[in-house]
Amino acid sequence: MSSVGAIFRREFASYFATPIAYVFIVIFLIAASWLTFSFGSFYERGQADLNAFFTWHPWLFLILVPALSMRLWAEERKSGSIELLFTLPIDIWQAVLGKFLAAWAFTAIAIVLTFPIWITVNYLGHPDNGIIFAAYIGSILTAGGYLAVGSLISATTKNQVIAFVISVMVSFVLLLAGFEPVLNVLAGFPQVFVDAIASLGFLTHFQNISKGVIDVRDLVYFALLVGACLYANTIVLQLKKAD
Question: What does the alpha-carbon distance between residue 158 and residue 238 come to, in Å, rounded to a whole number?
């Protein structure tokens, strides 16, 4: 695992070596705050909770996370540095895991930096901080799901724009799978089928956790999603290496 740690440290440090990290964090914080206090009607609701804040996270991640993940492998392939990576005495899966964990840790930092909103709601009232903490966990797990999908897509192309567009499209499908209007359209189908579709969606599992219920099934969903995407990511890179 020392190789994973080395890749993690290199990738994580690279985010802060350029303005990319700061631009991403600033955009996320501004967008999250704006959506919370404007569209979320935070003050008008008159309730001491952060539902208006967390509601927008899956939709924010739909754009921002693919913008982060598109460079994970597409940039390496375009610059040719991936060839150097393949010559290092590490397994491909270690590089995949290290780069993913670095991106996930960076995204988690951006999410945690929204803590002033948590402080604000505690100043204004007496919220259930257990539910808020669970929602933060759900937000970080959801971001990890988006990242895993984006990392896989990024490994399939040298073009970052293409990686971004396809990642958004795939993530949007996964998001819609748990979107209530979509489930209402499927209401005429057997309930087992509707539940199966809902279980594939980011939104269903995120909403469950954001209610303060950290169910094993939701944790297993994100674990399987991330694991499957990273495994596929490794296979794709191995095929590219063999070419």
Answer: 15
- Does the predicted TM-score (pTM) go above 0.85? yes
Instruction: Please provide the DSSP assignment of 38-76 as one string.
Output: IIT-HHHH--SS-HHHHTTHHHHHHHHHHHHHTHHHHHH
Contact 223/194 with Cβ under 8 angstroms? no
Query: Where do the domains of the chain lie?
Result: 2-242
Which has the closest alpha carbon to 143: 109, 185, 95?
A: 109
pLDDT tens-place string over residues 142-164: 999 999 999 999 988 888 889 99
Query: What is the spatial distance between Cα 243 and Cα 241, in angstroms, rounded to a whole number?
Result: 6
Residue 190 burial class via C-beta count within 10 angstroms: exposed 0-12, middle 13-18, buried 19 and up: exposed
∠ Cα 198 149 199 (to 5°): 10
- From the list 160, 144, 131, the residue with the least C-alpha distance to 54 is 131
232, containing H or E segment: helix 216-242
